[in-house]
Amino acid sequence: MVVLRAGLCPGLTEDMIQLLRANGIRTVVDFVSSDLEDVAQKCSLSYKALVAVRRVLLAQFSAFPANGADLYEELKSSTAILPTGSPSLDQLLDSGLYTGEVTELMGAPGSGKTQVCLGIAASVSLGLKQHVLFLDSTGGFTASRLYQMLRAQTEDEEEQASCFVLQLEALQRIQVVRVFNIYELLSALQELRDRLSQQVVSSMGPLKMVLLDSVSAVIYPLLGGRQSEGLALMMQLSRELKTLAREFSLAVVVTNQVTRDSSTGPLKPALGRSWSFVPSTRVLLESKEATWAKATPTQRAASLAKSPRQPTGIQVELDIG
Amino acid sequence: MQREVGTLPLAPALRARLAAAGFQTAQELLDTGPCGLSKEIGISREEALEALQVVRQECHGDAARPAGGSGATRKYTALELLEEEQSQGFIITFCSALDNILGGGVQLSKITEICGAPGVGKTQLCMQLAVDVQIPECFGGVAGEAVFIDTEGSFMVDRVVDIAAACVQHCHLIAEAQQEEDHREALETFSLENILSHIYYFRCRDYTELLAQVYLLPEFLSEHSKVRLVVIDGIAFPFRHDFEDLSLRTRLLNGLAQQLIIIANDHKSAVVLTNQMTTRFGQSQSTLVPALGESWGHAATVRLIFHWDNSQRLATLYKSPSQKESTIAYHITSHGFRDVQPPAVTHSPEGPELNPRKRPRAEEEQQ
């Protein structure tokens, strides 16, 4: 619904716009969907000029249909599968995190979502030498824990010095942005998009992964009650994440909370039905025992709740160590 | 800057009108100018000017950030964060077992939540931390001040006096044993009056006052920049009674959590909250779980649950980003929060009217 403005395309002058507006044509959609002969007569403009303007507007604003085979070729060449660093989780996700898709990790407090995110960041940065963007909205990012994970992953290198250099480089490839409300998050994503589209190769090298921990912390205060904007902002956010994933071939991982309907109901993911259509894959993390005095403190169970490729309900055991 | 209109922090009614008029990006808004804008969507010139100012700030905020950024930039590499974390101190609790499972003590710039049944020692720990945050750096503390927000009225000044006196004495003993110059200097300012005067106490009677107080806290903290600890004793209490609309409660609590994280992060202080316990009825048994619902569990970064095991007080680390879950035992003495001593102390036999879980007070420990 773009408003017609002078300079939108060559040939669209201010006078033309005034005449069109006087006849009720304000936006691009009105223009391209109206009968041009009619318009030419009513506004006393030349038919050829109007056709030329329409052609340019269509080229600028319409979506192009794509061939299925071309799409498949493009997918084969641009999609990458990033291993998460944990073989059982890779098995659950059909060999890893796919770029171009949004994956969601959900779980109760203390179930290990932040740990899994840190593990993924460490593995992608160290193993694949790709850059990672970590958007932290809960304050749970602990660099010393990340360092511990990196140390554990470089244990098999022989030399101490080269280990240390590898770890330092891996740490430098992970960029952390702390965003504590929805507008900060949206402007951080916008900034990322600008940077990627201008292909500024500064400290930010080839970015392949964006982790958002957690999405519900920034959206929860906006939903419900008589606030109508909460849902709109959530959908805006989902659109940003999905277009970022698709356009720049990134793997986007978000974490979500779980809630209950009543105090005895089953656990279900937070943010409701509208959000449930956004991620293409959903993994539920649970701790094995129900009470909080755990016998095996680092074991978790991950089950697949939604996937485009695997049957749901598969469960594996994770060690968040 | 192709920032979409939907992502700008404008009033929802204004946003709806802009969308209906066909504006899609911020650049279009800026190009139109205030007069054009007020004509297009039918608002007054002043409102249009205000809206454009907000848009300009957001867009220029975006542009300024890569160029070195304002104070609100929160972008770091993991390496920088690691260096920052390693140089940050912890607030010790004087119970070495608890400090160990927490990884050194209560961490700055994180929210720690303490849940427990009544009488298990949550307020005691809060008072201990309010004193411990002021320990000078040469003794291993962070030399900060404390803000204590009390909603239950359980803050007892005489108890803080006891705890502070014990802490000062402890530091004196260390200074005598080590005989260093900076220890002596530090001890001159670390006295009872000083400690008490650096605990800023606020009393909030209901949830509106609590929300208002947290809203005003950033200003207070920028004036008192040495504050390193914010304690809210009893975050559950104002939200548990008289609240009919539960979804409003969840929204308010989540908004509160985000504000507290911003405070913890921007002012590099630890935020400590205490929570109550409630019973969840399962199929065959009932369990004690922390109050305020499932979504509140995600608000705190570190969660400690205090509970009883016969007559022993135990602390379990339930949720932490960097430490494993474990359980330790602790003790509350007249000097404050301490480790469990080996059983050399003989207790007088408990009378039938005393609470069998509480250690009976000996004569000389009473006020």
From TrEMBL, chain A:
Instruction: Please name the CDD domains in this protein's record.
Output: Rad51D
Keyword Nucleotide-binding listed:
yes
Report the main location listed first in the record: nucleus
Q: Which InterPro entries match?
A: AAA+_ATPase, DNA_recomb/repair_RecA-like, HRR_RAD51_Paralog, P-loop_NTPase, Rad51_C, Rad51D_C, RAD51D_N, RecA_ATP-bd
Secretion signal, residue range per the UniProt entry: none
The source's domain of life comes to Eukaryota
* Keywords, in A-Z order: ATP-binding, DNA damage, DNA recombination, DNA repair, DNA-binding, Nucleotide-binding, Nucleus
Task: Please state where this protein is localized.
Answer: Nucleus
Q: Locate the RecA family profile domain: which residues?
A: 78-258
Instruction: Give the record's family classification.
Output: Belongs to the RecA family. RAD51 subfamily.
Please give the function described in this protein's UniProt entry.
Involved in the homologous recombination repair (HRR) pathway of double-stranded DNA breaks arising during DNA replication or induced by DNA-damaging agents. Bind to single-stranded DNA (ssDNA) and has DNA-dependent ATPase activity. Part of the RAD51 paralog protein complex BCDX2 which acts in the BRCA1-BRCA2-dependent HR pathway. Upon DNA damage, BCDX2 acts downstream of BRCA2 recruitment and upstream of RAD51 recruitment. BCDX2 binds predominantly to the intersection of the four duplex arms of the Holliday junction and to junction of replication forks.
Q: How does it assemble?
A: Part of the BCDX2 complex consisting of RAD51B, RAD51C, RAD51D and XRCC2; the complex has a ring-like structure arranged into a flat disc around a central channel. In the absence of DNA, the BCDX2 subcomplex XRCC2:RAD51D formed a multimeric ring structure; in the presence of single-stranded DNA it formed a filamentous structure with the ssDNA. Interacts with SWSAP1 and ZSWIM7; involved in homologous recombination repair. Interacts with BLM; required for stimulation of BLM activity by the BCDX2 subcomplex XRCC2:RAD51D.
Its recorded name reads DNA repair protein RAD51 homolog 4
The source organism is Thryothorus ludovicianus (Carolina wren)
Higher taxonomy: Eukaryota, Metazoa, Chordata, Craniata, Vertebrata
Automatic annotation (TrEMBL), chain B:
Q: Which UniProt keywords apply?
A: ATP-binding, Cytoplasm, DNA damage, DNA recombination, DNA repair, DNA-binding, Mitochondrion, Nucleotide-binding, Nucleus, Phosphoprotein
What are its GO cellular component terms? Answer: mitochondrion; perinuclear region of cytoplasm; Rad51B-Rad51C-Rad51D-XRCC2 complex; Rad51C-XRCC3 complex; replication fork
Residue ranges spanning the membrane: these are none
For this entry, the protein name equals: DNA repair protein RAD51 homolog 3
Decide whether keyword Lipid metabolism is in the record.
no
Asked if the record carries the keyword Metal-binding, the reply is no
Q: Which organism is it from?
A: Thryothorus ludovicianus (Carolina wren)
| Organism domain of life | Eukaryota
Q: Where in the cell is it found?
A: Cytoplasm, Perinuclear region; Mitochondrion; Nucleus
Stretches for region Disordered: 339-367
Record GO biological process: meiotic DNA recombinase assembly; reciprocal meiotic recombination
Matching entries from Pfam families are given as: Rad51 (PF08423)
